[in-house]
Amino acid sequence: MTDKFRIGIITKTHGIKGEVAVFPTSDDPERYSELERCFIKRGNDYIEVNCNSCKYMKKTVVLGFDEITSIEEAEKYINSEIYVDREDAVPLEEGEYYMADILGFKAVLEDGTVIGTLEDYMDTPAQTILIFKADGTGKQIMIPDVPEFIREIDEEEEKIVIRPLKGML
Fold it and tell me: For FRET with 58, which of 112, 129, 152, 160 sits at 20 to 30 Å CA-CA?
């Protein structure tokens, strides 16, 4: 179980006072307006920052931080990920799970055949896409996170039971 959750990726600077444009990776777009403290991951380091402003622009969120006050400082963080601690994450509803908690789970067909491991995920406007790494070949398998394809997520056995359409694998 992870202690930090990715909520966005810094894509570019915004203005000259150190604000950054963030591509949100959180299911709750309003969560950024409540953001007080977060971490910018740079390499293997997490740099704690305090959020002092939030604006919504098209498909991005513009954030300002107390610790970043110029465009030159902000440029250093382009392509860096933003994380929050588990206790600052959006609370889960019944039947929901944090994506970070299921990374590494085995992908299993309904007949029990293991086909790979959950490696990553990608949020799209339609739904989240789970990205599995196939056992043996290392090929990426992308499966939409919808009930038709994702039949069960078993947190105890760390497995995801899938029912892919012909051609998905």
Answer: 129
